[in-house]
Amino acid sequence: MTAATDIRARVDEAFEGFVGNTPAVYAIKRSLRVALSHTPPRMDRVFLFVGGPSLGKTTIAKRTAGALGLPFLQLDGTAIKTREQLFDALEDMLTDSGLQTKKAGERSGMPMIEYPPCAIFIDEIHALGSSVQNALLTALEANDRSVVLSRAGVRRVALVSHVLFMFATTKQSLLDDAFRSRCTEVILQPYSQSEIEEMVKLRFADLPAEAVPLVARASRLVPRRAFMLARDVSEEIADTGKPVDTCFAHVMYGLGIVSRNGLTHDDLAYLDVLVKERRPVGERVLIASLEGIESERVRDEIEPYLKRLCYIQLTKDGRLITPDGLDAHTRIKARLAELPLEMQA
């Protein structure tokens, strides 16, 4: 086996069983093969994974680190306010992982602290303020790879030449242009139903074949939802011995799912507002009408899915229900009205 063949096999193994976003994964695997051709392996790119929630950003980052044989450290950008806080958190994670930094001399009278080889993945990187993003610029420069830190007037230099940084964001427009320019953006696309079905088959090989498309559709095309539904349907079948369709209906009811494409009572409440108004509704008015539902959930989960189903339309004047949305709303309401009172709650 040649070195090139061995490298290709190693990269393919790291992504074995990964489903979806084929073009993005292809580009990452190519970069990994180049990185592994160096001795020691060296990744010359900083990946910025861009896309909505539950598109596999963290999973891809973990598999990338695994292909390179690097320990994987993960941070949530929403919890970081300063560069010092960022590196304090990283050092704590290194310690927890059995790794540690080491002294590496001085630069301009400042002690240098060298970080060990590892992969650092920062999710929701847009949540870091501009000052933190700017502080990371030198860490991403190929000819520098360092950050000057200061605490109580004492300055030190963090050397990160052996660190692979990877970032993820659901809101790339909030990132500074200088920061984005130092990253290779990897755009992730929503999963198709066939891709969700493939994931479910791989994870739940014993799930009856007729249950797979039901689970995939009701999952809103989100893998973790699909796995939860597949598990619940499997347990319902084992517990009751009833037909798949009956078991699936029971699981839907138990989870508050009101339609086979995964709509919930909260989605229905959103549509209720638009049906009542019968005119474009502004975001503020809409969210104020949905008492008990967090605004972030409306923006990041409910609205994008209803839009994807073509049930709503975003106009310059506000949100408007479409004919397809009105038809779905009418059918769901009629079906719920036929249920016993205790099942309508």
Structure description:
With 345 residues, the protein is of the alpha/beta class. Helices cover 48% and strands 17% of the residues. The chain is built from 15 helices and 11 strands. The strands form 3 sheets. It has a 5-stranded parallel beta sheet, sandwiched between helices. Strands 3-4-7-6 form a 4-stranded mixed beta sheet, covered by helices on one side. A hairpin with a 2-residue loop joins strand 10 and strand 11. The termini are far apart. The C terminus is likely disordered.
Largest sheet, described in full?
A: 5 strands, parallel
Rg, Cα atoms, Å:
24 Å
Oligomeric composition of the shown chains: single chain
Shape: globular
Give a nutshell description of this structure.
Helices cover 48% and strands 17% of the residues. By secondary structure, it is of the alpha/beta class. The strands form three sheets. Strands 2-5-8-1-9 form a five-stranded parallel β-sheet, with helices on both faces. The protein has a four-stranded mixed β-sheet with strand order 3-4-7-6, covered by helices on one side. It has a two-stranded antiparallel ribbon with strand order 10-11.
